[in-house]
Amino acid sequence: MSETNNCSPSLLRGLWALTVRELKKWLKDPVMVLMLVLQPLIWMGLLGKSMNLNAIFSINSFSYLEMPDIYIPGSLLKPPVSGTLVIPGSLIAQQLQQMFSDVGARIMQASFGVTDYFSYMAVGMVSMIVVMTTMFTGFSIVWDRRLGFLNKIISTPVSRAAIIFSKILNATLRAVFQATVILALAYLLGLQLSPKFTPFNLLGIYAAIFLVSVGLSSIFIAFSLRTTRMERPMQIINLIMMPLMFASNIFFPISLMPDWMQAVAKVNPLSYLTDAVRELTILPPDGSVLMLDFAYLGIFAVILSAIGIVLSWKYLTK
Amino acid sequence: MNDEVIIAEELTKVFNKSLVAVDHISFRVKSGEIFGFLGPNGAGKTTTISMLITVLRPTEGTASVLGYDIVRQANDVRKVIGVVPQEYTADEDLTGYENIMLCADLYGIPREIAKKRALELLEMVELTQFKDKRVETYSGGMRRRLELACGLINRPKVLFLDEPTLGLDVQTRTATWNYIHKLKEEYGMTIFMTTHYLEEADALCDRIAIIDKGRIVSIGTPRELKDSLGGDIITISIKESVDVSELIRGVAHVKDVKKENGSYRIKAEFGEVTAPLIIEALRKGGYTVTRLSLTEPTLNEVYLEYTGRTLRDSEESKEAIRMQRMILRRARGG
């Protein structure tokens, strides 16, 4: 009975074990999954459907328009004719409505890229769910620490990297899953996909989500590990959630924002995530724009995860 | 060399540059013994164990486990030790079996071996019939046993038990002691444990270090510690409020007299003989003895002797203990 195992667990084995643990926990708590999906769903349903910008510019908004008939004496026409020319008011109204609609659609097209606001913001909800999911997952390490689980795994020979990466991987997997749910729901609620959309685009979407999740979760895990108060990560989520969302193109195009806000939105990774997802769903994809988005997200992920992993590493090996 | 499994030299941990939790302690744990750290809450027991199991880095001093340095060869230490923390760390959402297998994965034990061992261990701690139930549904005693099983999955040569029966009722506590005894016999492990229960230290430990305010105040077998008191303890109260310490000290076999809380705590050899002599002497002096008790030394007496208070005194309400742990954990950054 005295044989001992001197085998060291491989990084992958440890990573796998810890990730599976998290996923099992996750699947055993479907309510949490539902709650997280619910919030963007409510935003999408209420805000996306009520802030119906395209309706403002559409024929419907002028359906009550009543124009008087216009009488033009024949003598004013060139060449003059006898009698009176009558242009029916309804015809004018119709023409005006048509013109307005065309202009409206162009305005929508020019500023939002699509003529349908719901599609525009529904895609933005993907970014929202990604941020929420990654942060809440990062938060779970606070519990692991509180309950002594973290100390227990630190006292095993499992690779420290496996401890950190399992959390990051878990956050990413959850974000991808939740984003898929949101996209599916948005589609059911009337999201209009670009005719050029193919299921392959999903891979691009997942790649973008992966980059953002990795960056955000690494930094958030490092922060959660070091905080001494449980409430802190929650406060941080609350504090940065709104600015992150509104100072981005989730709800409104950056080009129409005041300069100072544009400056913020242009460094906000959510702008690039949202943009990339839009390109890959509702817009006809533009290669160069996508390249820029992915380049930015890539740099973001590398820098934040480097900082996050170094900080977590220091904590775990202190 | 191989005889001393744990060697600690001047081990020190200071939190936040000011809170000295462990203050230059040195001790050696021999192969195959159960070594206990006995002391009140906040004495530095958990901090010491945390350093030994490589979770905390000592501020000063060194320690080694099976010859591996706890800082420089931390990963080697981790492979040969088993840890049963004082908290219930098993994942509530997983089943008992899943929890053990998770531990096995963390140690990198090949799956086939791990499965066999997990079932064996579950059998040993009598959890076989609950192995597929979520830990959420387990009682405190069952969780404790599951923690024990998890700590053994890698067949450790040294097992660390941090307050193994904290918060358990008397019956479950006795049952847990039996498991620990069984472990020692079956696996021939060296066990390092902390406790603030005297009976536990007395019942389980081969040797005990009494720790108080981060320092080891005495170390030895329970017998040695009791003997070191130099005899029995006679406690006596008199009606008159005069100090009669000197008078008592004059009685044969009396080695020491301490006046505390209005009574005299007398250390004497052959207590049964000495007690009547003391009464006699006091009566001759015109004093009236109102109360007398004679006890053979227990660890409580030993503890009192070395720390100046009883463990009972320092045992606060559960809430206070929890608060204190919270504060300490915060300081530890854990």
Automatic annotation (TrEMBL), chain B:
One of its Pfam families is: ABC_tran
The UniProt family comment states: Belongs to the ABC transporter superfamily. Drug exporter-1 (DrugE1) (TC 3.A.1.105) family.
Where is it located?
Cell membrane
- Give the NCBIfam families listed for this entry: drrA (TIGR01188)
Q: Report keywords, A-Z.
A: ATP-binding, Cell membrane, Membrane, Nucleotide-binding, Translocase, Transport
Q: Biological process GO annotation list? A: daunorubicin transport; doxorubicin transport
Membrane topology summary: Peripheral membrane protein
- Has keyword Isomerase? no
Would you tell me the Gene Ontology cellular component terms?
plasma membrane
Give the originating organism: Thermoproteota archaeon
Report the principal subcellular site.
membrane
Name the UniProt record assigns to this protein: ABC transporter ATP-binding protein
Check the record and name the SUPFAM superfamilies matching this protein.
P-loop containing nucleoside triphosphate hydrolases (SSF52540)
Its Gene Ontology molecular function terms?
ATP binding; ATP hydrolysis activity
Q: Can you give the residue ranges of the ABC transporter domain? A: 6-238
